[in-house]
Every structure is written in C-alpha cells, then in structure tokens.
Amino acid sequence: MTRGFGIVGTGVIAAIHADAIGLLSKTRLPDARLVAVTDVVADAAAAFAAARGCPAEPDLGALLARRDVEVVCVCVPSGQHAAIGVQAAKAGKHLVVEKPIDVSLEAADRLIDAANSAGVALTVISQHRFDPGLVELKRLLDDGALGRLVLGDASTKWYRTQDYYDSAAWRGTWALDGGSLMNQGVHYVDLLRWCMGPPAEVTAVCSTQAHQMEAEDTALAIVRFASGAVGTILSSTAAFPGFPQRLQITGTNGTVTVEDGQIVGRALIADPGPPAPDPALGTARGTAPGASPDADGLAAADPAALGVASHAAQLADLLAAVDTGREPAVSGQDGRDALEIVCAVYESSRTARPVSLAR
Ligand SMILES: NC(=O)c1ccc[n+]([C@@H]2O[C@H](COP(=O)([O-])OP(=O)(O)OC[C@H]3O[C@@H](n4cnc5c(N)ncnc54)[C@H](O)[C@@H]3O)[C@@H](O)[C@H]2O)c1
Predict the structure, then answer these.
(1) Ligand 1 neighbourhood includes 306 CB (under 6 angstroms)
(2) Which residue's alpha carbon is nearest to atom 3 within ligand 1?
(3) What does the DSSP 8-state code read for residue 78?
(4) 76 CA to middle of ligand 1, Å?
(5) Which of 13, 51, 117, 273 has a Cα at 20 to 30 A from 325?
C-alpha cells in the first residue's frame, strides 16, 4: 500500500521533506512516495514538482481532495501552519507540521484541537530529537545516569545575512515568523524542555542587534524548571561566522554536552565514558551517508544546509504512530510546549518581568 505524502509550500524546507521521503522509500519504507505538491506561487510548485517527478496541484483543496495523499507536510511560513493544518486535518489527512507549531499559542491550540477532533495524527518537526547524540543523551537521562538535574543550557549562535531576511516578506515579522528564537533557536528550546522537563519561570532580554527586521535577532533567557533545576537559553542570528548549536545538561552525577546533534563531551562521576572526540581530527561528524544531522553544522551560516536523516526518522515515526495508534514521538503538545517557552521569553523581554509558567 502506497504511503502517500503531499507537501504544501515548496520553498527551502520542502526540499528536505522530499529528500526525506525519497530516503525512506529507498531504505526502510519502500511504499513511501511524494504524490503531489502545491504552493500559492504556481511557478514554484511547478518547478518543484517537475524536479521531483510528481504533479503540482493548483491549490490546497485539490491536494487535499487526492485520496492517495495520506500525510500532509505543512512547509509554509510559520504563522500559516495552523490555518493550513486545520484544513488538512478536516480533510482527514495526518499532519507533519514544520517548527514552530505556529507563532501563537491560540493558533497552536486550534491546530491540536482540529487534529484531535478529526482523529488524525499530528507531529511537529523537531528533527534533532532523532540526532544520534540526542538519542543517547535522552537514554542516559531516562536511565538516571546524570543523577538529579541541576543545570541545562541551550545555545544557538548562528549567523544570517540581511539578504536572508530580505529573501521573503514573511521572514523576521512578528505575524508570520518571529525572530531568531522562534525560527532558529526553537530547535534547542525543544531539546532543553525535552531533557529538563517543564519550566516554571522565564526571565529574558531580547534585542535586534545587526539586522533590519521587526523581531529580535538575539535572545537570552534564564529558566527555572519545575524540578528546581535552572538553565539558560541563548539564540542569535547575529553571531558571525556561526557556531555549533549546543546543549549542555548537568546533573549531580556529571555533564553531557551535545553539539550539532553529536555528543562532544560526557563526564559522569560513575562512568567517565569514552573521551570526547577531538574536533581537530574531525571524527565526530558525518560518519555515515545522510547521518550528519545538519550537513556538518553548516546550517550555522547557511539556512539550506540541512541533513535529511533526522527528518526521515521523524516522518517514519509519524507513519508508525498512525499504524499503531500511539502518539507520535514529537506530538502537537510537544510543539506547543516549545512555543510556550518562546512566547514567555518574548513576553518577559517586553515587560521586563519574569513570566511564570507554573501549572
Ligand atoms: N526544521 C528545520 O530545520 C527548518 C528549516 C527551515 C525552515 N523550517 C520551517 O519551514 C517553514 C517554511 O520555511 P522555508 O524556509 O521553507 O520558507 P520559504 O519561504 O522558503 O517557503 C515557503 C513556501 O510556502 C509558500 N506558501 C506561502 N503561503 C502558502 C499557502 N497559504 N499555501 C501554500 N503555499 C504557501 C511560499 O510561496 C513558499 O514557496 C517555516 O515554518 C520554517 O520555520 C524548518
């Protein structure tokens, strides 16, 4: 039985979805197919479809009317995710929604409610949860190897040119994108929340340092987690030349450091583990074809330099969730939880006050 995917929005990230579907069909899911695409810019959809050997549908309605589309990948600007996703859910399609889930909690709730009412599966892309270093770190945390959590730091110091923000009208706007934290930093915000648990309070400062854009290009926050642990979030697109995305989790038994999806430091009191790879020797990354989480960290400076394997893993997880009736590994609620932290950072910066997230 064909597992048909339709892509809505044929821009930068759509290529990764198409490649991920192609990788799945060549490896573990021979029935996975990209069956149709659509975009409000008809020429963009036509060129994309021609390159991928599938039809371009004239509009969303036509794509949703196709019975061979089982899953819709929502790859439009962030502030339109819920609007498109709700229509797809009502048409009975399972949903892969790019990150962030949307740019407001109200929109996120609309999308989650629509998926629940329609009984369709919803996953929000957080492909780095499938990176090898994150899989290993989560296993260590679930095994209690780090002890009681003390401190978690998530850092995205990247660089985007002004041309990047000028390349599409939606980029850097509050209505459709948000800034560095909502777009680029949200990945490691989700990972921090995944590892550290729910936050209780966020205190933040955001500023626009080096770009002409509505939203921030630099965000810093201090987080108090419900567990009593504390942490920091740093996200910038003004940090030339761009550095590895970094997550460092410290517990009473030691510290694990992840950079660009690979463990680069692991020091546990009970079990020091293997020594951290020497970056100068280049042993840490890209050891298997397609396995490099983000094309050897080039996404630090190039928005299109993304690995495919982790997106493919998340798409495969969605299909497995559909088949077994379980929740996808990254649910709509997970996407909302990450967005809630981003919104709290923005609110704290706006009001110059801590924002409580205690439940
Ligand atoms: N997971 C990742 O690592 C990653 C990387 C890049 C982008 N993204 C996310 O993917 C989304 C898209 O980003 P992008 O860089 O591909 O943007 P983009 O501007 O390159 O592409 C968006 C496309 O959507 C089309 N579009 C806009 N409104 C539409 C509508 N109503 N119906 C159909 N098509 C519509 C546009 O014409 C455009 O072709 C964003 O939410 C972004 O945050 C995720």
Answers:
(1) yes
(2) 306
(3) G
(4) 4
(5) 13
Ligand 1 pocket test, candidate residues 73, 80, 98, 134, most atoms within 8 A of CB:
98
DSSP 159-186: B--HHHHHTSTTTT-TTTT--HIIIIIH
Ligand 1 centroid to Cα of residue 92, in Å, is: 22
- Phi and psi dihedrals of 277, rounded to 5? -65, 145
Calpha distance 291→300 (Å, rounded):
17
**Most informative mutation of 39, 74, 76, 103 for ligand 1 (most atoms within 8 A of CB):** 76
CB 263 within 8 A of CB 133: yes
Per-residue pLDDT in tens (0 to 9) along the chain, 359 residues: 899 999 999 999 999 999 999 999 999 999 999 999 999 999 999 999 999 999 999 999 999 999 999 999 999 999 999 999 999 999 999 999 999 999 999 999 999 999 999 999 999 999 999 999 999 999 999 999 999 999 999 999 999 999 999 999 999 999 999 999 999 999 999 999 999 999 999 999 999 999 999 999 999 999 999 999 999 999 999 999 999 999 999 999 999 999 999 999 999 998 756 655 544 443 333 333 334 455 556 788 888 777 899 999 999 999 999 999 999 999 999 999 999 999 999 999 999 999 999 87
CB distance 51 to ligand 1 below 6 Å: no
Centroid of ligand 1 to alpha carbon of 10 (angstroms):
7
- Global model pTM greater than 0.90: yes
Q: How many CA atoms lie within 13 A of 208 on its CB side?
A: 15
**Comparing C-alpha atoms, which of 133, 131, 130, 127 is closest to residue 256?**
133
* Closest protein CA for atom 15 of ligand 1: 12
Q: Which two tokens stand for residue 37?
A: 């695409």
Q: How far is the CA of 170 from the centre of ligand 1 (A)?
A: 9
| Cβ 16 under 6 angstroms from ligand 1 | no
Report the residue count for the chain: 359
What is residue 246's DSSP assignment?
E
Pairing verdict, β 32-38 and 3-8 = parallel
